[in-house]
Amino acid sequence: MQDTKKFIENLSGAGKSIGVLTSGGDAQGMNAAVRAVVRMGIYVGAKVFFIHEGYQGMVDGGDNIKEASWESVSSMLQVGGTVIGSARCKDFRTHEGRLRAALNLVQRGITNLCVIGGDGSLTGANLFREEWSGLLDELVQSGQISEEAAQTHSALHIVGMVGSIDNDFCGTDMTIGTDSALHRIIEVVDAIMTTAQSHQRTFVLEVMGRHCGYLALVSALACGADWVLIPEMPPKDGWEKQMCHKLSENRADKKRLNIIIVAEGAIDQNNKPITTELIKDLVVRCLGFDTRVTILGHVQRGGTPSAFDRILASRMGVEAVLALLEASPGTPACVVSLCGNQAVRLPLMECVQMTQEVQKAMDEKRFEEAVKLRGRSFENNLNTYKLLSHRKMNAELPRSSFNVAVLNVGAPAAGMNAAVRSAVRVGITEGHTVFAVSDGFEGFSKGQIKEFKWGDVGGWTGQGGSLLGTKRTLPAKHIDKIAEQMRIHNINALLVIGGFEAYLGLLELQAARSKHAELCVPMVMVPATVSNNIPGSDLSIGADTALNAITDTCDRIKQSASGTKRRVFIIETMGGYCGYLATVGGLASGADAAYIYEEPFDIRDLQSNVEHLTEKMKTSIQRGLVLRNENSSENYTTDFIYQLYSEEGKGVFDCRKNVLGHMQQGGAPSPFDRNFGTKIAAKAMQWISKKLKEFYREGRVFANTEDSACLLGMRRRALVFQPVIQLKDETDFVHRIPKEQWWLRLRPLMKILAKYKTSYDVSDSGQLEHIVRLRAKDNSAI
């Protein structure tokens, strides 16, 4: 196996020059991408050039094209927008402009371009590549370059990264900037909700997205909006009446506010625009509600990038350099993107063509096709929104006579409430009676169980912590009482939302089935813990919110050091024995080192980190950031590391330490966690419905098979149901972590970006895939 592996050490960029530019509308996270390209490029021995002001800088040349150094991208990670500037460029659209651009690149030996922008910018880059040899011939003929120079620079390689807050590019699940834009929208919606509640108001919010409704759709999902209007799915004729009916119904149900979200490109069936003013007039005219309009505008493009965007952009930037190093003259221009949790490379023009097909389908009123072309992620968001937003009248509901119980187990995690809301509402839509259990298995044993109706979970998506109450107690010692409560309430299925205790709890319930027939019912667990330590799932609800809390704090701490200079901060993160928060938090905040249990370290490693920081203090970046997972080592405690660094750094730098503690568990859930919680719980409830039908025999539910007690987790590109009993072999029960963890592959990235020489296995990247596969209808995508 060893010989098929590819390592970064075997890839050399010596003698190569890479130009990096940002083009088109700016997006948060572009700077993180630029930083990753520059540092990875320098790391492999290539020269990297900033091309300022996008294509305009390439055409104008001169000081717009400057060589980048390692230090020149310091402090960029936390800055929104693009530091190297972006411009919409008319000149580059002309042949003459592209000729000048080619000359400027050849003069500096640049034959590798990394373009960060939207589909227009990437299409321009591809045209430039196709014309390249012709442009060089012209330059030779006019005597501007020599024949030899033309031969040396005969091939132009292009790799694109999509930076666009609209998430309007086909082939990639998330574009750089989308998650940060959602953060801005949700911050505004949360703030508006409090004032709307005070005055019983209706708010109409316009979000960006001229041709793509992604931001509107996902923010509507994340805040539980009453109505959403997007270009891909115009409302059916008569929607005005339907919308007003829904709003008044919600008011009658004691809901004090209404939120309507409109994408700026929203249209009706006849392609006529639907504006915020039109909706406001409609609500005032039909219902007489006090209505206000808020247009978010460029707020959505601004602010600091979220942790997700920094990690996405850093991973993409490194992947882009690898793609350029491996490109041969015949390699088509490609885009590096994310599919599920995996980095992939796709042919640039296939993605562009499919993106244009969406617009064409919309222009020709083939709206259902447009939704499918947008991709699995978009389609699933839309289906989940439809499922949750339209309460059916009792007469329309299928009655199933099944009772399903929902509970939270373990420590609180942001996003749990969104998952409970989703589970309750989908359960009711499927015709079940849904019971909510307070205080986990302990509350279950005491009979703290009550039926939840549709309105009982209104407004839950934006609430942090666990509104149901959650405890770490395991069911084994209360098993008789739990079985009794299952019998009293006639519970036919269980949905457990929680952390490692929930996983252990499910294993215990399954083991007790032989003694208690009441436990022979379908059970499913949805992972929710800030530690992200659940086997069978790459991600868990709550981890993204915790990462953002860590990243925000690290940003502030780094800023405090910029005044004092020569200071190193040692920060302790949560996570039990799982180093996810320390590692990924380190990548997102530009840490110099992250100590974790999974990668043992000794005094020599600590010594070399101190020496590395001493060297760093000689440069213009006079501050350091070191993260330590709380249980990374029994003896090398945070205090020990702080004292060691203080002593060894005497006269060179001073130290400060911070323990972040429970602030990582609190706060309003991030858009990602609200969304992930909503979608994964909806899917879990649909699985329960399917299993209830499957295991219903002679008037009762009896489920005793392995696959009737599952964990629903995200694995690479899809959501998968896995029998908990089969996950036992993948679990280190002593340290409460999975034996194999995908994010350990990101550790070399963090080290490379912090200037450490390291081994990095890049076998996973590199295969150019085709977009066609992504079209297949696949419900397992998230």
From TrEMBL:
Enzyme Commission number(s): 2.7.1.11
The family database entries (InterPro entries) matched by this protein are listed as:
6-Pfructokinase_euk (IPR009161), ATP_PFK (IPR022953), PFK_vert-type (IPR041914), Phosphofructokinase_CS (IPR015912), Phosphofructokinase_dom (IPR000023), PKF_sf (IPR035966)
Per the database record, which ranges form the Phosphofructokinase domain? 18-323, 403-688
User: Which keywords belong to this entry?
Assistant: Allosteric enzyme, ATP-binding, Cytoplasm, Glycolysis, Kinase, Magnesium, Metal-binding, Nucleotide-binding, Transferase
Q: Which Gene3D superfamilies match?
A: 3.40.50.450, Phosphofructokinase domain
Top-level EC class as recorded in UniProt: transferase
Q: Where does ATP bind?
A: 25, 88-89, 118-121
Q: Does the keyword Signal apply?
A: no
Where is the stretch described as C-terminal regulatory PFK domain 2? 403-782
List residues binding substrate: 164-166, 201, 208-210, 264, 292, 298-301
Cite the residue spans of the region called N-terminal catalytic PFK domain 1: 1-390
Any known activators or inhibitors? Allosterically activated by ADP, AMP, or fructose 2,6-bisphosphate, and allosterically inhibited by ATP or citrate.
Chemical reaction(s) catalysed: beta-D-fructose 6-phosphate + ATP = beta-D-fructose 1,6-bisphosphate + ADP + H(+)
**Stretches assigned to coiled coil:** none
Specify where it is mainly localized. Answer: cytoplasm
Report the GO molecular function annotations: 6-phosphofructokinase activity; AMP binding; ATP binding; fructose-6-phosphate binding; identical protein binding; metal ion binding; monosaccharide binding
User: Which residues of the sequence carry a binding annotation for Mg(2+)?
Assistant: 119
According to its UniProt record, which cofactors does this protein need? Mg(2+)
Q: Pfam families per the record?
A: PFK
Give the UniProt entry's GO cellular component terms: 6-phosphofructokinase complex; membrane
Q: Name one GO biological process term.
A: fructose 1,6-bisphosphate metabolic process
Q: Which family does it belong to?
A: Belongs to the phosphofructokinase type A (PFKA) family. ATP-dependent PFK group I subfamily. Eukaryotic two domain clade 'E' sub-subfamily. Belongs to the phosphofructokinase type A (PFKA) family. ATP-dependent PFK group I subfamily. Eukaryotic two domain clade "E" sub-subfamily.
What role does it play?
Catalyzes the phosphorylation of D-fructose 6-phosphate to fructose 1,6-bisphosphate by ATP, the first committing step of glycolysis.
Q: Which NCBIfam families match?
A: 6PF1K_euk
Return the protein name: ATP-dependent 6-phosphofructokinase
Q: Which organism is it from?
A: Carassius auratus (Goldfish)
